[in-house]
Structure formats: structure tokens, C-alpha cells
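Exam revision sheet. Question 4 asks you to relate a sequence to its structure. Input first:
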Amino acid sequence: MRALVTGGGGFLGGCIVRMLLERGDRVRVLGRNSYPQLEKRGVECVVGDVRDSQAVNAALRNVEVVYHAAALAGIWGPGESYYSINSRGTANVIQGCLLNHVGRLVYTSSFSVVFNGRDIVGGEESLLYAERFNAPYPASKSVAEKMVLDANGWEFVVEDKRPQAAEINQRHGSTVRRLATCALRPHLIWGEGDPHLLPRVLQMARRGKLKCVGDGTNQVSLTFVDNAARAHLLAADCLTPDSALGGQAYFVSDREPVLLWDWINNFLRRMKVKPVETKVPFRLAYIRGAIEELTHRLLPRLGEPAMTRFLAEVMARSHSFSWARAKRDFGYEPTVDNETGLNRVVAALSK
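Answer key, C-alpha cells:
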């Protein structure tokens, strides 16, 4: 199988690349940097930006499946940056698939497209998209996911341009094929090499800046990076326009949800860092987030605020999801359990 991984030099994208190589697929990555460590393993690296349609088209030539994992993540920044990369960049990938006759597109989405700031426990795919977003990241991912799912079944014409095929084309016409798409919503991806979640938690805890928002009983799904990557491969292998997956979105996560603050404190203890004891009421954190957002918009030189409304909601509310539908439709089942994952992360961070 010839595969393209956008964002293949990143955390999740790199894990997808590794798994594709391990099973013998031919892999190309599209990223804003070159990756010598991947090239040494036989990966073709195309330097480019998903906002550049020409670069996307060049990367998509002669591939059979696309894993679109490239995205701008975060809780703060200009909305235009998020929309240009996450939304318009995804539109370029869809258009490139059609122009280059790529039959399968697996999109990395986010739980946040259905998160409206209220508790979700055991959420399923029947959940509606959120009606409001307190950050540009989930808003831009929602737009992108909808585009990807709407593109399922779009037709493109494939002509056999070999000289001996000219008579066949003239007699029977060109072959019409359809694009197959689906979206996966891995939740709070973590693991060795995590550049965001656990390193940030650890840094804040060591500085004494981490506080529990809410009462500390919120239930949250996590997704170890190996589990998330494996879900992408399983989905792609089963994906056709007429399959159960075509045009659908799926939650994927680790086997069981965790109590977020108990899990964080367990991680901190293993890292020999003092657990979080101070609690801040959700309402107070939310109001502080609103004030900090306004202040940092008026004074951009202050950088990223320590608290935002979206971050307060994520830290205080329950957001756990069922992966039963993913198991039913493409055989997903997490292979790395929480304990094994924590052992691997602690060992990596303790080196």
C-alpha cells in the first residue's frame, strides 16, 4: 500500500508512519520540515504546507490512502491561523485526493467537535456537533470534519493513459471511482514523545502552578498514541464508500476512562513530584479565563494566557466516550493499557 501521512513528523503522525513501515507499506510524509530520521528508514519526505494546494497535490501523486493528521493544536492563537491550517488545509487535501485519484482518506479529528462545555459520560457518535466553541481549535476542527465526511462518495474519473488502453477507453469510457472518507476522534493523545499534554502538566506541577479545576471527580477518556495510530490503520484497511465507515466519525480511546485528577496525581507521584492539592471552583476558573482572554487580546505581547474558558471546561468537566462502534465497524480494540502506558512514559521522561 502506498500511503501519505500529513504531519508525519509529529507525535501521532510519526507513530502512524512507524506502524505503516512495520507492516511493509510504502510511506510518504508531508510536513513543513525535512525529517532525516524518517528518510533513513525509506520514507519519502515532501516539504510543504497543507495551506499550499500545489504542495498538497505534489505529495498526493501516486498514493492510495491518505492519513491526514496535520493540524494546528492549542488553546490560544489567532483564529485565522487555525482555520487556514485545520479547515482550508483539509479542503486542499480533499481536493488533492480527487485530482490525484486517491481512493481513501482517514482524517484525525477531535472530541472537541462535540464538546459544548457540559459533562459527557460514555458519549457515542450520535452526539451532535457543539453549538458553540470557546476556542478556534475545536471550531476549525468541526468545519474540517464536516467537509471530510461530506466528501465521502464524491466521484472522480480515472483514465488509463497507457497507449494500449486508448481503444478500451474509447469503447467503454473511463472508469469512475469514488472517494471514501472517515474521521477518527482520539481523545487526549498521550505517550512517549508527547510534546504537549504530560510535559506541560509536569512543568506546571514542578513550578507549583498546577491546580485542580472543579471538584476533581471528572471522568475523562485518554488515548495512548499507539492505540490512536493503530485505529487509523484499521480504519483505512476497512474503508470504502459503501462500507459502514464511509462518511462516519468514530471515537477511539483507551480501554477505560480515568478520573482525570487522580490520574494526573498518580503520574506526578511516579515522577517524584508533589501531587496537586489545591482546588479552584470551576466558575472562578471560567471567569478568570474570560478575563485573561480579553487581557491577552488587548495586550498580545503577554503571549498565551495561563487560563481560558475552554481550558477551564476541559479541566473540570467529564468527557469520556465509548469506542464500541469503532470495534463493531473496523475491529478497533486498544492494545496498550493505562498501566503499561504510564510505565513507558515515566521511563522515557526519567532518562
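Marking note for examiners. Residues 237 and 330 are 8 Å apart (CA to CA).
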